[in-house]
Specification:
Layout: H1 2-27, E1 33-36, E2 42-48, H2 59-82, H3 84-89, H4 91-94, E3 102-108, H5 119-126, E4 132-135, H6 137-145, H7 153-156, H8 161-167, H9 173-176, E5 177-178, E6 189-190, E7 193-206, H10 207-212, H11 224-234, E8 242-247, H12 253-259, E9 265-268, E10 273-276, H13 281-295, E11 297-299, E12 305-307, E13 310-313, H14 319-322, E14 326-332, E15 346-349, E16 362-370, H15 377-390, H16 393-405, H17 414-419, H18 431-443, E17 445-446, H19 456-472, H20 480-503, H21 508-540, H22 552-587, E18 590-591, E19 599-600, H23 604-610, H24 613-633, H25 635-646, H26 651-659, H27 666-676, H28 684-691, H29 694-717, H30 721-739, H31 743-746, H32 753-758, H33 760-763, H34 781-806, H35 810-818, H36 823-834, H37 836-852, H38 854-861, H39 871-880, H40 885-911
Parallel strand pairs: 2-3, 8-13, 8-14, 16-17
Antiparallel strand pairs: 1-2, 4-16, 5-6, 7-14, 7-15, 7-16, 9-10, 11-12, 18-19
């Protein structure tokens, strides 16, 4: 009993330190702090999201940087007049510092950035959030209701009504002044303060490309048809020039939706909540036009089939625009984006009018809020002074002066020039630009700011992708009315999914049914887990053999040394694996909030996940990715190693050539392959693919099939019928996959079967009719994510197998030759048996890697577009994009249970593997 008590005391003592460590990490929510240096000066440190870069050569950034410097210079005076006396009289609240000598230091927040995920969300989850958070319309709801923002009511009392009207546009008021959903009393608070000008989308266009193609510059009366005709004339993909830039998600499409008279979201006063409503007739019209821009079929001067007049890329990837390869680009006009506007080359215009004569320029505003995790009142006051200063008269006057001195007064709003004494420059200001700004702001449509509205753009990706695929396959009706019905049905399906996924709209009866199914599944999963755990334990347990002369004392000493050696690794695994695992298990039972109280909801997260089509689609995509990854990264290195083994000369040179890709950094590899996989006919991959005639693809497919048939035949000859059948089926599948590549060219949808057969003597010797849009085509998007990995890992994997092949004695091959074995027999009965242990280990490693690295590869190459969102990425986005951490954890557990059967199988195999060293006689 005493030993048990001692053990428990030691256990709790050790784990108390670990729990204390995690408590500190979980509750360190902000990075601002106060210090007093050696000279007695008190320094208030505040971290700001999006501070201007002092090293930037952009004069707009420099103007903003000088504004920040002015604030830092004036802060001690402001603090002395406004705060010093109050702080000294309340040391218990503000701390015992020298408040007579104070300065402020602003630090730029720099966090991990991922496409489609706000970096501040990652920082908040990691406990290192900036003190001042950037907020815009679509982020505001979730930031307010997730308790990320501190209410600013006490600070807003400093403003008079006139000052409020000057600082805040009336259309911004509903965004920053509202109540939380969970506030029963519905008390409204101010949550953020705007800075800078209002934002709206404009049409940027390259003057040189318009002049080259004899296109008049866009004006106030430009329509969709004018926009379409201009894109059509400018588009020249053979020379790397594109008519218009479109983003990977639906952000660009919303401009056309609003211009057609449609809406993204609506507010229901009866239900007191927002809901998605882009499935209207106007939405179908906008989608039809958008798809026309992206995928309309046309024939170039060389007789090649081309698609659309746009290039799709991530909105932050503006390299082609800066190189003058894009004709038009719909984007915000803001100081952050002025680097995209060279007045000599780039013009600005209003977005084109839709068929109803409406113009759908988005209205938005940049805003700053104070993070609710800031516990120090002094840091919070300092953060407020910075936010308030940005739109103060002193800041605006300096900003205007610096821009005038830099010679860019034409970008300064006329009212600013008037206010700060530069009336003489009004005649030089761009009156058309100012007029366009006013029209855009007056007719602007506020970006949605309801529940989860920040996640609408990724959701729009799915219907756009579906319509694109139908258009590229020539499966959309030619009749306008029928085609619009198809478009509206696609949007209706998307709206239904969006309202359920993002707004959690599930009827009570349906929810009860889901809970019942989830309970049954969880019980079955728990029973299977116990069974499998017992199975693994038996597989790796030592046989119960009693030794006659065993020395217990020596064994105990040996075990002590082993425990001491393994202790650091064990603690590391405990801290970074198992404690988060237990914590995550609890998260899955809550509507988990990063800040504030989490609501216990039982198994609802599991119930909703089991009935989520998006989740199961992501799992299916992950399985496809795993199959492709195993096929292309596990088998080719072995085939290459065997081939290099048979090369009579220059083996070393070939090995070096194949290993060189592995020496490049990952960033270089990704950037290189993004260029190789560009959708243009001139990209490396498309040039290679288009050079192969259709008959070449068929010949390759038949060659692969014949190889598999020969292998199956030899297996059948040696009475391995099951293995022969599996190899034959794999060969058939491989044949169908490769033969499908030229199928759409040989048998196009616009011809019946007999007509296509009559054309075969010609079409067999032609190449593919269209280039692949590798990263945006769902048919090849996954493949485009794996190809760079294959290219980079083929060499190292090949060298490992080559080293193993060297260990096989030549006597085996000589004996096989005497017995009349052919090349396939040697592979089956000599190479594979001798490499069995290595193959098993590599297979397990390749399988784990296909699940472990899929998220990063997909995120870098496609961002989850084109139906390439794997389960890991879906979990990531559910947590850090939708802020649904409980559901994300439930998904992770379900995925873990799904993979556990393979884990058990692989552990069973590894427990029976014997390792032998190669001995020389």
């Amino acid at each position: 009993m005493n030993n048990l008590i001692k053990f428990l005391l030691k256990f709790f003592k050790t784990h108390f330190i670990l729990l204390l460590f995690f408590f500190i990490v979980q509750n360190s929510k902000a990075v601002g702090y106060i210090e007093q240096n050696k000279d007695g000066k008190t320094i208030i440190h505040v971290t700001v999201q999006r501070l201007p870069d002092p090293e930037s050569d952009d004069f707009f950034t420099q103007a903003n940087y000088q504004t920040v410097k002015l604030f830092i210079k004036n802060f001690p005076k402001v603090f002395k007049e406004k705060y010093a006396k109050k702080y000294k009289n309340n040391p218990n609240v503000y701390g015992d510092y020298n408040w007579d000598n104070v300065e402020i230091q602003l630090h730029n927040f720099s966090g991990i950035y991922f496409i489609g995920v706000e970096s501040d969300l990652l920082a908040i989850a990691g406990g290192v959030a900036p003190d001042i958070l950037y907020v815009n319309f679509n982020k505001s709801y979730n930031y307010i209701n997730s308790n990320f923002l501190y209410p600013l009511d006490e600070y807003f009392t400093e403003f008079s009504q006139a000052e409020l009207r000057r600082r805040i546009d009336k259309r911004v008021i509903p965004v920053i002044y509202r109540a939380k959903d969970n506030d029963v009393k519905k008390r409204k608070h101010y949550w953020a303060l705007p800075y800078g000008q209002l934002l709206s989308r404009f049409l940027l266009y390259r003057k040189d490309l318009f002049q080259k193609n004899n296109i008049p510059y866009p004006n106030e009366n430009w329509t969709w048809d004018d926009f379409y005709q201009a894109a059509k004339k400018i588009h020249d993909p053979d020379n790397g020039v594109y008519g218009v830039f479109m983003g990977l998600n639906g952000w660009q499409w919303t401009t056309f939706l609003w211009s057609s008279g449609g809406n993204l979201m609506k507010y229901s006063p009866e239900r007191q909540r927002w809901y998605f409503a882009y499935d209207s007739e106007q939405g179908a019209i906008a989608l039809d036009f958008y798809i026309k821009l992206l995928t309309e079929k046309w024939i170039d001067k060389n007789g090649n089939v081309m698609r659309g007049y746009a290039i799709k890329n991530h909105i932050k990837d503006t390299r082609d625009w800066e190189l003058g390869k894009i004709g038009m680009f719909i984007h915000y006009i803001s100081e952050r984006n002025f680097k995209l506007i060279n007045p000599q080359l780039v013009g600005t215009a209003l977005v084109p009018k839709g068929p109803t004569g409406k113009r759908g320029a988005e209205l938005n505003s940049r805003m700053y809020g104070i993070f609710s995790g800031v516990k120090s009142k002094a840091v919070r006051d300092a953060a407020w002074e910075y936010i308030k200063f940005l739109n103060s008269d002193k800041a605006l006057a300096l900003n205007t002066k610096l821009k005038v001195n830099a010679g860019v007064a034409n970008f300064v709003p006329p009212e600013m020039l008037k206010r700060y004494g530069y009336n003489y420059l009004l005649k030089y200001s761009d009156s058309e630009f100012a007029k366009s700004c006013q029209i855009a702001f007056d007719s602007g449509v506020p970006e949605p700011y309801g529940k989860n509205s920040s996640f609408i753009y990724p959701m729009l990706q799915q219907p756009i992708q579906e319509a694109e695929e139908l258009s590229k396959a020539d499966m959309l009706p030619k009749n306008d009315g029928e085609r619009l019905k198809v478009m509206q049905q696609i949007l209706a399906t998307s709206v239904k999914r969006a309202n359920e996924l993002i707004l959690d709209e599930v009827p009570p009866k349906e929810m009860c049914f889901r809970r019942a199914i989830a309970g049954i599944v969880i019980f079955i999963g728990f029973v299977l887990f116990i069974f499998m755990f017992n199975f693994i334990n038996k597989s790796f347990s030592k046989p119960n053999i009693k030794l006659i002369n065993s020395n217990k004392q020596n064994n105990f000493k040996k075990n002590i040394y082993i425990i001491l050696l393994l202790a650091p690794a064990f603690l590391a695994i405990l801290i970074w694996r198992y404690i988060p695992l237990v914590h995550g298990s609890l998260m899955s039972l809550y509507d988990y909030q990063l800040i504030g109280k989490s609501l216990f909801i039982g198994i609802d997260n599991f119930a909703n996940t089991l009935f989520s089509p998006e989740w199961w689609l992501a799992v299916w995509t992950a399985l496809r990715y795993c199959f492709l990854s195993l096929t292309l990264t596990f088998i080719p290195p072995l085939i290459l190693a065997v081939m290099l083994q048979e090369v009579p000369r220059c083996r070393l040179i070939f090995r070096i050539i194949y290993y060189i890709p592995a020496m490049l950094s990952g960033i270089v590899t990704i950037m290189l392959w993004k260029q190789f996989l560009a959708p243009s006919r001139n990209s490396v991959m498309n040039k290679l693919v288009l050079l192969v005639p259709n008959i070449g693809w068929l010949a390759f497919a038949f060659a692969i099939l014949i190889i598999f048939i020969l292998i199956a035949k030899r297996l059948y000859f040696y009475d391995m019928k099951l293995k022969a059948l599996i190899i034959f089926i794999v060969g058939i599948c491989s044949f169908l996959v490769i033969a499908k590549i030229p199928y759409s060219t040989l048998f196009p949808n616009n011809l019946n079967f007999s007509e296509a057969v009559n054309n075969l003597p010609v079409t067999l010797f032609n190449g593919l009719s269209e280039p692949f849009a590798w990263r945006s085509d769902s048919k090849v998007a996954l493949l485009s994510c794996i190809i760079p990995m294959v290219w980079a890992t083929l060499g190292p994997g090949c060298l490992i197998y080559l080293a193993a092949l060297k260990g096989i004695p030549d006597d085996y091959y000589e004996a096989a030759d005497i017995d009349g074995a052919n090349f396939i027999d040697k592979i089956i009965f000599i190479v594979l048996p001798n490499l069995k242990a290595l193959l098993i280990i590599n297979f397990v490693g390749a399988f784990i890697s296909s699940w472990y690295t899929a998220t990063e590869n997909i995120m870098i190459m496609t961002g989850g577009a084109a139906n390439s969102e794997v389960a890991g990425l879906h979990i990531w986005l559910m947590a850090f994009n939708y802020l649904n951490f409980g559901k994300a954890t439930a998904m992770a557990w379900i995925l873990g249970f799904m993979l556990i059967s393979f884990t058990v199988y692989q552990l069973k195999i590894l427990s029976n593997v014997e390792f032998k060293t190669t001995k020389k006689d």
